[in-house]
Every structure is written in C-alpha cells, then in structure tokens.
Design a protein that fits this description.
Elements (H helix, E strand, L loop, with lengths): L4 H12 L5 H8 L3 H13 L19 E9 L4 H12 L4 E6 L6 E7 L2 H12 L5 E8 L15 E2 L2 E2 L4 H8 L5
Antiparallel strand pairs: 1-3, 1-4, 2-3, 5-6
Amino acid sequence: MKFDAIDRRILEVLQERGRLANCDLADSIGLSETPCLRRVKHLEAGGAIVGYSARLNPKALGLNVIALVSVTLDRQARSSVERFEKAIAGIPEVMDLYLVTGEFDYVLKLVARDLEDFQRLVRGALLSMPWIAHLQSTIVMDHVLQRSALPLLGFGVDGPGPRLQRTTVIARRGRRV
C-alpha cells in the first residue's frame, strides 16, 4: 500500500487521538470531511489501520506484575508450533507473543495480579503444555517506556525515504498538502 503525505498525517493524528471525530480529523490535517473519511476508509481497507482501542493502566486494574517469558519448544515440528500458538492465544493474561531468533523460540509478555497469580499461570497454564521444553521468566521491575504510536516520519510515498517534517508543519497550519 502506498502512502502520501496526507495519509501519513492521518495515521499520525489517529495514533495519538483515535477517538477524534472525522470533522476534527479533517480540520487538523487541512482536508474537507468527505475526502478525509474516504482516505480513512481506504487506510482501514488496506490494513494500515487495524482497529481502535483504549489504552488501559494495568495497575489501576489490579494487574501489578508484568513478566517476559522466554520459551523453548521441545521440537520445531509444525504441529507443535501450531498447537503452542493456539494454546497461548487462549490465555487472556498473555498480552504479546513473539516468534524470535536465538536461544529461545518465543518470548511472551504476560500480566498477573501478583507473584502468586504469576506462579499459577506458569505452573498451571504454561508448564502443563507438553510442547514446552524450557521456560525462563523475567519479572519487569518498572515499565519505563511504552509507545503505541509507530514512527511514521521516515516513510515517503513509496516506503522508507527522507523525513518529511516540513509536511507536518504545513498540515498543522491548516493548509492543504
């Protein structure tokens, strides 16, 4: 999918303010409402925008432990990989699952209420999976940085290119780009 400066600006604004009404989005990028909505729908249909959600504070919800768990499977057979991925997808406390290179096969991020809850997840959910040969857990001491917005300034019309900071400044002045 190709992006122009207006598409990039739409993505930048929606990453920061996903609940923005179309009329406000159009105003912030200097487009009229109909072409703005058309572009947003095109970005959604093309897969650049995959959804909208609220960011929640885990501690406010009683989820005080974040852990990174590195997993080695007993073998790399397709059936083991598929069963493991499907089983992990069924555990709501697993927030992210990454297939990685190196010593481990996967790294997952999970949340728990406390260390006792974390231990229950490891012993009850993870270690009961017959495909897991080895686990290594790292408890997060402090969540220092979290970004939900992807960096878009380095992407030109046909992919990576020079940073287009001037485009952002022009769009902020309310002029069409």
